[in-house]
Please model this.
Amino acid sequence: MTHAVRTGARAPATDRFTLARLLRAREAGVFIALLVMCLFLSFATDGFLTSLNLLNVGRQVSLLGIMAVGMTFVLIAGEVDLSVGSTYALSGLATGMLIIAGWALLPAIGAGLLTGIVIGLINGVLSTYGRLPSLIATLGMLSIVRGAALILTNGQPVTVNARNGALPDVLASFGFMGQGYLFSVIPMQLVFFVIVAALAWLVLSFSNFGFRVYAVGGSAKAARVSGISVNKVKISAFVLMGVLAAFAGILGLAFLPSSQAGRTGLGLELDVIAATIVGGASLSGGEGTILGTILGVLIIGVMRNGLVLMGVSPFVQELMIGLVIIIAVGIDKWSTRRPT
Amino acid sequence: MTEQPTPAPIVEIFGLTKRFPGVLALDRISVAFRPGEVHAVIGENGAGKSTLMNILAGDLQPDGGEIRIDGKPATIASPLASRTAGITVVYQELALCPTLTIAENIMMSDMAARSVVSLVPRDEMRREARAALTRLGMGTLDPDTKVGRLSVAEMQLVEIAGAIRQRARVLVLDEPNSALSKRESDRLFDIVKQLRGEGVTVIYVSHHLKEVLDLADRITVMRDGRTIETMDNSGLSEERLIRAMVGRELDTARQWSLQAEARSHEAPVVLAVEKLTAPGLDEVSFHARAGEILGIGGLPDSGKDMLGEALFGLCSRHGRLTIDGKELRGGDPQASIRNGMALVPADRRGAGALLTMSVANNVVSASLPRFSLAGFMRRGAVRREARAQVARLDARISHLGQKLATLSGGNQQKIILGRSLVTNPRVLVLHEPTRGVDVGAKAEIYAILRGIAGEGVAVVMISSEIPELIMNAERVLVLRNGRISGELTGAGINEEAILARAMAS
Model:
């Protein structure tokens, strides 16, 4: 390369190999896997390739997807959050109980989201200034938050309906959030997922904050000597995760207006982490994208849907999902030489 | 090197002291760094160079003394404070983010200085990074490449590129070219000269005396935590520098090895190594006799640090190894232990010791089959053996169940030595046998090693501390660039001779 080329054109060697780069990207493998799966299901079943079914898949994965977006931030920052299933339950319950108590919609939702923020803040502070590994801190919070939900509801189911005291217009809007359709076609849950994912993509790929998340997870030391406040970035990621888990929990209750502290969102954290990791995020931090996470969520969603359409038993479905997690991450580890 | 009135120093150090448990790392050192000079800091391992650099980087805080920046007293409380003051330290082990691209790494401090809610200026980042790389003659590197895919040399240059971009006023290079090829280091030297021309102070820590003489305007020699002298680089020779670095009386223990040399000359060869090739080692052949302490010396990048692992089978290797005439097949640690080799590795915390386990369990951990019966540990036998080793090595512990982590460095090292001895080795390989061990325990460990050699074991002592080799070894092999560059025996073993063979370029 000569000086003239370098200063004259802004097109570096990069642009010439766009296709190769595209194929080398971590998302490419997941995308191809998803494509193959969809093609197979289109031929193997009658019901898969219909707009109704596809939108249905979209709705089914939305709540998982919203949480997986949050988990992407946490994993890239080099941490993990096991408390999201409990947050999902507690926030939904909090909002539900306030609606029953006659609150207006927005304050009730706000209170639910605030629960998520506080949980995220506690997770973040414990994992940074508290010097606990986030695996331990959030494992503790998993139990604490679940326990709080049980105490709050006394273990009784909470059902949001007019008979229990919810105001009719609040009930209608709340129901629309969870069960409604935009233009009578697109499920509202899917609309929320798309908005959350789009915003997160913008933040992670184009904002200074997103850059810091990658830097902190890639090498905390390098970030620190560059003047990035590692702790603040990590806490922010946990708070974001908390808010999104809370939001998903609220939407979950809006879809299925009855919730029980002992059951709702049980084990959900594992699904969320699985989808995020299938999408290419690394447990050791620094790696992951929103696009990859969406693909990971879709793989799990399409697979569940396809197996149902093919009449495969739910027991076999569980087993298949486990295989997908291992194979998806395995392909990545076995096929590429990772930088050490 | 032009004639000018001496400019006021940019960084001045007065009576700086740093104490670690059992070691006085810096002993009231004073040195001044002027703007626009290349100032080399040289000295043996343990002379205090790294400690000084870590203080400048804000990683360590001094216990006493004063640092002045631009004539004003300053504290460098954190790495960030160091960078804010215009100091950038490029370490041997780098502070880069492998998952980010070159451009992102170079621009990281820029990004940290901007608002969190701003956008990432991709094009500007790429452009700036390319400019910084071009200045280093690395314009062909694609700024969008992930740093994790680069060679160590390229990473080093990326880190320097980042430092240049931040307009560092003081650039500290710690052994910058140990990973660089000849061409790459030539380029680095050009860059250093260019920066000097721009008024940047370059503090250059190196073992390579020839480069230092080529490059530096002034040279500060450190020894035993003290600054010995600061010299203008004119009319200096490598010999002159070596003499300044050494300047130490020989220990009386030297007598022992001189006598031992006479004794062991006729002893049978226990370990024979033929054309050993491994990462960092290139067809190394040597032997060690029963009852001798064979010293291995060399610079950090000479291959010396790989020898222990290669002999023991911790890394892939080629070549022929025999112990008592029996060829060692299968290059794995189990086979090495079975055939009578024991290794005391340098990295006690990482590789050497089971820090969270008890003294007794550590002692037997390399010989488990002998101390178990039908899958159960024979607790009585374990305790008996542990007690015997503790007594033999005079390790100071409160009880056999004490966790290794709670012992001092010297006592930990004795327990690890004990673990090696339980395997009844014919060959005992030690890598940095007294690293992190205080002076008193050092002498004890030396005495123990002599005792072991006296029982007919071939002891191979790989060490960066030259005095340690002189004191204990009756024969010293010096490595350079993965090969043996010299063998010294008896009265021929002295610091000048070892350094000359380690550094000759």
Q: What stands out?
A: Residues 182-197 of chain B form the longest helix (16 residues). Residues 249-253 of chain B have pLDDT under 50 and may be disordered. Chain B has three domains: 11-246, 248-340+425-505, 352-423.
